[in-house]
Fold this protein.
Amino acid sequence: MKLAVHRYLLVFTVLTALFGAAVLSGCGSEGEEPSPAPDYAKKLAGAPAPLASLYKQGNELLSGGQSAFDDRIASLQGYPVVVNIWASWCGPCRAEFPVFQQTAAAMGKEVAFLGVNSEDNDDAAETFLSTHQVPYPSYIDPDGSIAGDLKATHGYPATAFFDRDGILSYTHSGPFESQEELEEAIRTYAYGGPDSD
């Protein structure tokens, strides 16, 4: 009887350790690998002045809150605007970043890209951006008020689309899985105007 219990405990301990290692390795790897950035200087060379000015602040965290964010949106009138709402602690946000890196490099001469770093720690966000560089800045949103104004009410990530007139036309909840999926949403919501649903 003691031998059977001992074997059971040994098997249980080994299986628990293996399961724990698998879970930890899966959690640790999601979004943790550095994401090599495209050559933004080359890809975005010749961007119109309002977009070039935006990209001079690439990868920066900007203060100023809602008013600074609203002023930036107003300054980009005439261009479609895509706003990625993210946090460094959000696994799906981290996994989505390469999609925004590639799409901003491909479409950044016609479309303005911005970030909103919501409910996050500035040091953690800066550390994440050091290995996942984007060509556009992110506005700091510690209390989630900018995110709320953008109708990001179902958690992060979320993506807000503004048309050329600076009107919020749609907010997408959840991550984009591919560059193609994000580009299609940009064509539909930022170029196509308000969502009819």
Observations:
- Residues 1-30 form one domain.
- The beta strands are 61-62, 81-86, 112-118, 138-141, 158-162, 168-173.
